[in-house]
Amino acid sequence: MHLPSGMTLGQALKAANVVGSGGEAKVLIQSGEVMVNGEVETRRGRRMKAGDVVEVAGRRIEFR
């Protein structure tokens, strides 16, 4: 899946239908289950840039 850059990590998880709410995104991110560019990311407010890759729950999200 591809998403536009500029959104936060929490917004991206919602847009990709990985989670249903911002609260769910917060729990998932803070549990250490979300990787950005191969490293665990715990900040849901991180702004995604073109070329970033998010991996979570067996899914891959790329940003343009």
Q: Could you characterize the architecture of this molecule?
A:
The chain has 64 residues and is an alpha+beta fold. Helices cover 25% and strands 23% of the residues. It is built from 2 helices and 5 strands, in the order βααββββ. The chain has helices at 9-15, 22-30, and strands spanning 2-3, 35-36, 39-40, 53-56, 59-63. The protein has a 5-stranded mixed beta sheet, with no helix packed on it. Strand 4 (53-56) and strand 5 form a beta hairpin. Helix 1 crosses helix 2. The radius of gyration is 10 Å and the shape is globular. The termini are close together.
Can you lay out the helices and strands and say which pair or pack?
Blueprint: E1 2-3, H1 9-15, H2 22-30, E2 35-36, E3 39-40, E4 53-56, E5 59-63
Parallel strand pairs: 1-5
Antiparallel strand pairs: 2-3, 2-4, 4-5
Helix pairs in contact: 1-2
